[in-house]
TrEMBL record, chains A, B:
InterPro entries: CREG, CREG_beta-barrel, Split_barrel_FMN-bd
A single GO cellular-component term on record: cytoplasm
Keywords for the protein's UniProt record, in alphabetical order: Glycoprotein, Secreted, Signal
Major place of residence: secreted
UniProt signal peptide: 1-27
Organism, as annotated: Davidia involucrata (Dove tree)
Name of the molecule in the record: CREG-like beta-barrel domain-containing protein
Entry keyword annotation includes Secreted: yes
Keyword Glycoprotein set for record: yes
Pfam short name (any one): CREG_beta-barrel
Stored PANTHER family: CELLULAR REPRESSOR OF E1A-STIMULATED GENES, ISOFORM A, CREG1 PROTEIN
Amino acid sequence: MKTKGVFDCFLLSMVFCFVFFQNSVHGRILSVSKPHPDNAAAFARWLVSQSSWGSLNTISSDMGGAPFGNVVSFSDGLPDKGHGIPYFYLTTLDPTASNALKDQRSSFTISEYPIGTCGKTDPENPTCAKITLTGKLQVLNGNSNETEFAQTALFTKHPEMKDWPKDHNFQFFKLEIEDIFMINWFGGPKPLTVDQYLHAKMNKLSVIL
Amino acid sequence: MKTKGVFDCFLLSMVFCFVFFQNSVHGRILSVSKPHPDNAAAFARWLVSQSSWGSLNTISSDMGGAPFGNVVSFSDGLPDKGHGIPYFYLTTLDPTASNALKDQRSSFTISEYPIGTCGKTDPENPTCAKITLTGKLQVLNGNSNETEFAQTALFTKHPEMKDWPKDHNFQFFKLEIEDIFMINWFGGPKPLTVDQYLHAKMNKLSVIL
């Protein structure tokens, strides 16, 4: 009986730890189940929606036109209600925003690995998904509805942004997607158009994890 | 007494979970302590050495010269014995390697966030470090000492690589670093030359975590 009590306590602790660590390390608990890899559009939208950061890549005229990747946070909407378009909160004190104002060509790269759903699979293994959205990085007009959407999307998923220094002149940017490269299983990149991606039918909400 | 026993069990479980999750989510347990942010060279080497993947960015001639980021695994040497130069195991079935064979200009972007040492800090917050190494992505000669070093470095940190399909013609690549952009605290990018980076004096081994 005593052994059973200790075992129960251990099990309870495991569950507590599992939920706690998922929450603390990855920023939130998964609430939408991962689509089947064959459902490329839904999978891509899940990957973007569940991620909170990635590498935003621009052309650096200061470095001979080299591709310059930079770690940034992003949001495509409210949690589990993303629209698929990544929005960013950037300052021209950072090279990425100033590069984009000179040359809009850019891409945004996300890995499934930090979400925590790849297990022990290597981040370069094709079954640990990765997506690169290529297009134009555009600054948003200060007073548009889209700017308001971007602000709500970003400040909800990244609450500390609203307190970032006003004198750094942060502005909202969006990636106007023109091409999608996604690998989420064996067999090479999944054929996926921008239209299919933007109009994907998402899975319903599922239980926590 | 009984309460104390349950509490002890709970504490033990917490410790077990903490070590287990650090190990399973991030691939390994940190064994070198994080240098002070002011020690830019040592910090940069720590960040590269403790990371296992990042975004490798090349120029895509197929997409009008757009910067194309791609998630890849890498290694700069044996665990905690890295030399600072990132090596990759890439196939030209993937755009990144074929882009690099046409145009070597590239960068490699790493975030501290997935290491797990940023806590609840946002990935774009300057105190959650990020580094971009810019330079030339070069394929290694098949039989050189450097190829042997790259193979050992990669296959040790990424054991599944040695079983990846032979008919995919994976080759070893290195990033010949020409510029380093690192933010690891407030105040903008840290001034850091490639020479300072490559000859950084690293911290001694510390206890687990």
